[in-house]
Amino acid sequence: MKSAYRNHFPKCDNTDLGDTREEGRSKLTSDSKKPLVSAVYISTFRPSVKREAEKNKSQWKTMGPAKVAEPSPKNFLQKHSKEPKLPASKFNVPDKKLPALSVPRRTDHPVMGIQSKKNFINANAVAAITGLPKKPQPIYVDRRQGDKYLLETSGLVPKYIKKKDYGVTPKYVTRRNEERKRAQKEQEASNLEHLKNRAMKQLSDEERNSLLQGLKKNWEEVYREFQGLSVEIDTISKKIYKEKLELQMKQLEHDIEVIEKHKVIYIANE
């Protein structure tokens, strides 16, 4: 058995063990010679930043739901419990008196023992004999079968024409007519004033002569421009300018003829 184990495992020399020990020592010495890593920088504001972050966050986002006392099943939500309640009034409102009842109360007792000596049979007979007979209601019949209807509600009775205010003009109509007449008078007065301001005035002989001379002078100037046109009018602009001068000359000739024909001329004041 021993020979079998020896054959199975390889042989180990002492030289090999020594080499491995030396390699481990060299590694330790090389690691010790490396420089140590400097400490990580920590800001001085870290606690305050952490405190603000925790303050701004809700409890559900950090460590789960808040640990609070469980509500009691006796303190359940009741109807109208969250509605705002008005404060008690400082004024004492006097109690209003209840109106008198038309029926007797349950605690009231009727008056007993009262008797009357009146003979109601004889009294009713006397009232029926001495009383006036009841007048029948006026009716009308509109069919041959004899259908009857009350005459008062039919509209056939001249009830409205017998009223005191029948045919009288209502107050609002008279008031409206007065306002309309007043507005009409004001409008007529304003129209008369406007016509007076724009009254016609007669031209004097000097103004008429000066106006006539000015129109003739304008006609001569337009006629001079018309004579200065070229013989051959071959463009559109020349045709338009010629037509414009002709219209001006015709208008001036018409005005001159009117002023010369009428010696008395009226003009409106503007």
TrEMBL record:
Family annotation (Pfam families): Enkurin (PF13864)
Superkingdom assignment: Eukaryota
Region Disordered, residue ranges: 1-34, 50-81, 175-198
Domain Enkurin: 175-267
GO molecular function: calmodulin binding
Alphabetical UniProt keywords: Cell projection, Cytoplasm, Cytoskeleton
The keyword Membrane belongs to this UniProt entry's keyword annotation: no
Residue ranges with Basic and acidic residues bias: 10-34, 175-196
InterPro entries referenced in this protein's UniProt entry, alphabetically: Enkurin_dom, Enkurin_domain-protein
Compartments in which it is found: Cell projection, Cilium; Cytoplasm, Cytoskeleton
A single GO cellular-component term on record: axonemal microtubule
Protein name: Enkurin, TRPC channel interacting protein
Species, as recorded: Strix occidentalis caurina
Species classification: Eukaryota, Metazoa, Chordata, Craniata, Vertebrata
